[in-house]
Amino acid sequence: xxxxxxxxxxxxxxxxxxxxxxxxKKLMQNLKxxxxxxxxxxxxxxxxxxxxxxxxxxxxxxxxxxxxYLPTPIEDLLGKLNSEGTQINSACLLSDTSWxxxxxxxxxxxxxxxxxxxxxxxxxxxKGKVCGLAAKxxxxxxxxxxxxxxxxxxxxxxxxxLAEINKRHVKIRDIQFVGSGNGWILLYGDKGxxxxxxxxxxxxxxxxxxxKGRKVNIVRSYGDYWIVVYDGYKVETNI
Length: 239
Known about the structure:
Blueprint: H1 2-40, E1 45-50, E2 56-60, E3 64-67, H2 72-84, E4 88-95, E5 98-103, E6 107-111, H3 115-124, E7 130-136, E8 139-144, E9 148-152, H4 156-167, E10 172-178, E11 183-188, E12 192-196, H5 202-211, E13 216-222, E14 225-230, E15 234-237
Antiparallel strand pairs: 1-2, 2-3, 4-5, 5-6, 7-8, 8-9, 10-11, 11-12, 13-14, 14-15
């Protein structure tokens, strides 16, 4: 009886994984199509955020946004900011009940963030404009001011590079955890970047853009899918 139940459970799990994989493929293809449309219009792509299920949010232009699915509170907030003409900057979606949206001149609104991240955002607010948050698992990095950062449980290699950039008083443009492992990327200065343990093909893509003198604006990933936005609105992806 136990063997039969185990077999049924195993089949169910396999079907569930297959169904979720198919959903993710559709979500990623829809994202690729949306990014292509924005890119063709030559509109700056400022951020791409994913939740744990692969649903996405694109922030573009000054007040533009597009998404596959969002919880009602953040959907309402985006609509309000858009109608008011308030600049929308970036977002971090931890789950349906845990997220933060950055907008205006260093402002942010959040719901359900882990207490340590909420405390850190509040603490650094007095030191300069809060610019963004990267979070994955138990690791997080808050970016503020020109080159300020506050990190928890981030990879030592990332922290070493961040400290180096901070000491040189170079602007930190973006910080992101990348891939399904412990990969990360930093964008700094005009065209500077540093990274480690990236998904297959991504490091080669970035090196190619650097070699051609292009400016990488953002790098985002969901699992081993990755997206590079360069020269403001151009997109390269493995989707």
